[in-house]
Amino acid sequence: MNMNKESHGVFVFAQQVDKTITNVSYELIGKGKEIAVELDTKVSAVLVGSGIKELAQNLVEYGADRVIVIDDEELETYTVEPYTQALTAAVTAYNPEILLMGATAIGRDLAPRVAARLHTGLTADCTVLEVDKGKHELFMTRPAFGGNLMATIECPDYRPQMATVRPGVMVKRLRDKEAAGEIVLFDAGIHKNNCYVEVQKVVKHIAHKIDIQDAKILVSGGRGVGGKENFKYLYDLAEAVGGTVSGSRAAVDSGWLGKDEQVGQTGKTVRPGVYFAVGISGAIQHVAGMEESDYIIAINKDAGAPIFSVADVGIVGDMTKILPELTKAVLAEKSNKEYL
Question: For the segment 103-145, what is each residue's pLDDT rounded down to a tens digit?
């Protein structure tokens, strides 16, 4: 949509799966609220699904001034066409200035379809959002060229200004159970067309490992670990401290860990209580994904490694000697406490 018609408000797509709202939706409401204050407007969450009306109050309690609920049997299971119709209809009806979506599997699939229907631009996988309240323009920053550069993108001529945002980058507001907001039931007029697909079967796979974005303690390894076989030291420590193993891009590119275990600008942004950086030099692309950790412990043979500049505790030495001793000390401490 062009700017001939006056646009107002910040919209957030509140993604729910199996009637559970994803954490990034709450994070985006928090950021959307900040932007809305700057622009002297309101933040609205668009909740799409079937039998999901009772979830609307949760979004209000996390900062939404208004929740637009699109509740339809066609939206029970996510497929791109009916969800595109639903979100496009709401945006067309309310004409917001900004539309934010999580850079999840669903968000990455849905956002470009919605942007195309609205004839507007889309900046994907953003890590920073800033606003010029004078011009009412959103500055959307994302990694470019494999994370080696940061690109800031504007969409001055079309509305809404659309961005998908990486989970874990923004901070959700504290929940206010006394918060009040408007809840609106919206009929999107969803209709079947030749873009529909039929879902034959939904197979739910339960992963036993914790998503690194949810982990309270991360033991993260980089190129300095030296090889996949040396990650056993990290797994031993992680098991001892009740943590999860993750790694840098170098470790993932070397095939030592999976892509879903990567921390950094081209991986995931994490905020654990404790972050062990083992054999990680501290390139800016990695630090950007973990610098908000509460407590950072760096272990590296190179005393001049940049990671020490962001660490709370730094240990210079060989991780193959340090980690076994650290693991042994943790286990001994746990054993003493159990005995007492």
Answer: 999 999 999 999 999 999 999 999 899 998 888 899 999 887 7
Fold match, 10-185 / 217-339: yes
Alpha helices in the chain (DSSP H): 23-38, 56-61, 80-94, 105-118, 231-241, 249-253, 284-287, 319-339
| E strands, 180-291, in order | 182-185, 217-221, 244-247, 274-278
The two tokens of residue 13 are 């797509």
Token pair recorded at residue 124: 């994907």
DSSP3 helix / strand / coil % (the chain, rounded to 5): 35, 25, 40
Fold topology of 10-185: Rossmann fold (3.40.50)
> Residue 336: pLDDT band by 50, 70, 90 thresholds?
low
- Assigned CATH topology for domain 217-339: Rossmann fold (3.40.50)
The residue extents of the domains of the chain are 10-185, 217-339
287, 308 Cβ separation under 8 angstroms: no
Strands 20-21 and 16-17: antiparallel
Tens of pLDDT, residues 166-194 = 888 898 899 999 998 999 999 999 888 88
pTM value?
0.74
What are the Cα distances from residue 182, in Å, to 54, 94, 211, 297, 303? Answer: 13, 14, 34, 45, 56
Q: How many CB atoms lie within 10 A of CB 156?
A: 12
User: How confident is the model over 290-332, as pLDDT tens digits?
Assistant: 998 999 999 999 999 999 999 999 999 999 999 999 999 998 8
